[in-house]
Amino acid sequence: MKSTLTHLKHLSALSGAAATLVVLTTVPAAATPTSTPYVPRPALTAQASASSVRISEEFRISGESHDMPAGTPVTLQQRQGARWVPLPASVNTTPQGTYKMRVVLGLEGRNALRVAGGEAVSPVVHVTVRP
Questions:
Q1: Which residues form the signal peptide (predicted)?
Q2: Which of 20, 24, 55, 90 is most deeply buried (CB count within 10 A of its CB)?
């Protein structure tokens, strides 16, 4: 900083008028990261055919899989307390990446459900079961 001020004084004295100081700086180039191929993460969607059903009434959970091989098994899970419990509802994804399963719930109230498979978990869907 001192050398910059010294040069500024010399420039000012030499020109006798206003001096303009241009300081050029160089920034070291960032290290080039090693190239790693992009690997998409598997994903699942889920939707219920009904938001409210009677106890023991059948409804469907359907959705799509993304970046998963055809035939990947997906399982319905239900939130019970603080845990996600797998239910006996499991199907394989189709060659088009879709799935559809029939579901009958016996737990009254608002049920939180999701689908898991192929290292992916769907967003939660809610279905209310009434008497």
A1: 1-31
A2: 90
What is the residue whose two structure tokens read 């993304």? 66
Q: What is the pTM of this model?
A: 0.71
Q: How many CB atoms lie within 10 A of CB 27?
A: 5
Q: b or e along 106-121 (b: 16 or more beta carbons within 10 Å of the residue's beta carbon)?
A: eeeeebebbbbbbebb
CB within 8 Å of 3: residues ≥ 6 apart: none
* Amino acid letter for position 56: S
CA–CA distances in Å: residue 13 to residues 16, 18, 45, 69, 120? 5, 10, 73, 76, 71
Gap between the Cα atoms of 128 and 130, Å rounded:
6
For tokens 């239900």, the residue is 78
Domains of the chain: 43-130 (2.60.40.730)
pLDDT tens, position by position, 6-33? 444 444 444 444 444 455 555 556 656 6
